[in-house]
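Continuing from the previous page of notes. For each protein in this section, the sequence appears first, followed by its structure tokens. Read the first protein now.
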Amino acid sequence: MTLNATLFAQLIVFFILAWFTMKFVWPPMMKAIDERAKKIADGLAAAERGKQALAEANRTVEQELAKTRSEAQQRLADVEKRAHQIIEEAKQQAEAERKRILAQAEAEAAQEAQRAREALRDQLATLVVQGAEQILKKEINAQAHADLLNQLKAEL
């Protein structure tokens, strides 16, 4: 075989191989490449959507955090206000209790003073009677003068 025949045979085998590749191998490879390119494009689009969703979620989280902080500050202010109210109520109750105790003590002191006056009147009446008895050097009937002593107590 000559060089031309070998070259011609190689050329025919090459064209048959090229035709076979174009007919049976190339379409599935192109289909696989197209599917892969589509998957990559879908993945990139999904990644972009995920990135946007993440950014939106971050914005939502920041809004919720700001809202929560605001609510926490409001609650803290409410708690402080309530604490001041409780303190004021406690002061008012303490003042009322102080006044009540003071009034009770004054009433008890007045009663005690009244009892002391009564006791002093009794002692004074007894001393007056004893003094009068000594002055008169005679016995004074205590029963007869009981009315006189009661009258003296009332006047004192």
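Done with the first. The second protein uses the same format. Note its length before scrolling.
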Amino acid sequence: MTHLDKLERIVRRVLKKQFRGVIFDSVRIREGIDHDDDGVLYVRAVFRSDAPLDVNARVGFVRHLRPHLRRLDEDRFPIMSFVSRDDLSERETLNA
């Protein structure tokens, strides 16, 4: 199992705990560099649009995720993107 696979498992576990009842179809993690040349993790979580996504849970999600990432010695900051499955389909259609 790669490091990114381990990170994805952790993100999925915390998503499940913080967003009870919401189904996430996919989680994609991409490594990157921010505008200050610091390493970051770009995380895209695709959820089913028939389930409401609590705004307060989204805002505080990184605070719950970071301690789990640190246990894997992962200090890069996760930049989260929450996208509904319907919106993702629209974007893919527009970019085709």
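What the second structure shows: The helical segments are 3-18, 55-70, 85-95. The longest strand covers residues 24-33. We return to this in next week's lecture.
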